[in-house]
Amino acid sequence: MKPGWMRYWASVSLFSGSLLSAQVPTQSAEARAPKRVNELRLAGLRPGKDSLERAIRLYRRPMLTADDGRSATWTDPCHRAAMFLDIELSQRLKSIRISHADWLAGDCGPLKRSKWRTDKNLALGDPTKRVQALYGEPDSRIPSTNGRQQLELLYYAFDWAGPNVPQIMTVLCTPEKEGKPGQVVEITLEAASL
After folding, report:
1. d(CA 171, CA 137)
2. Where are the alpha helices (DSSP H) in 71-191?
3. In angstroms, how far is CA 48 from the centroid of its own chain?
């Protein structure tokens, strides 16, 4: 090649390289934002889909059942936890709630992680920051109390995921205090009205 042609090709390649780099789209803030995540199950049960019969197969007979058959309660003394089910007339589960239960006394030695957790592995006693790491920012944060205990309710609406999945998840947490992180004390997963 002649020297003039070399300069020409060098300038064309620099120019086309700058055009190519200008055409590469930068990632938008929306694309960088964490994707929305919904939850389907709590304690291995799916509200709106599973029945009381499935809960009994998983956890045996409940400790307490309402006379009208519209609620059932199980306890786990070793993990100091209770599970409450609200049941529709069709026997499908309307909501599942697991809650820290100080009133249950049980010392079972070293324990495995409780089976009562979400599919994304959120369990009672987890730090509040873990909730946000798994599910993102809640739709709302509401101060709450249980007796004299100050709590914070994290509310997640999953209506964006369609009508065939649980629609609401609420997580009650203790607030951060004196450098100690807040902890999950209750998780509720609820189906749409059946």
Report:
1. 12
2. 128-135
3. 17
Residue 187 has what DSSP assignment? E
Residue 4: band (very low, low, confident or very high) from pLDDT cuts 50, 70, 90: low
pLDDT tens by residue, 53-90? 999 999 998 887 888 889 999 988 888 899 999 999 88
Domain positions in the chain: 35-103+117-190
Token representation of residue 89: 């007339």
Maximum pairwise Cα distance, the chain: 97
Distance CA 193, CA 187 (A): 19
Q: Are 172 and 144 in contact (CB under 8 A)?
A: yes
Q: Decide: helix, strand or coil at residue 132.
A: helix
Q: What token pair was written down for 109?
A: 């030695």
| Long-range contacts of residues 76-80, Cβ cutoff 8 Å, at least 24 apart | 76/104, 76/114, 76/116, 77/104, 77/105, 77/106, 77/108, 78/106, 78/107, 78/108, 78/111, 79/106, 79/111, 79/114, 79/116, 79/124, 80/104, 80/105, 80/106
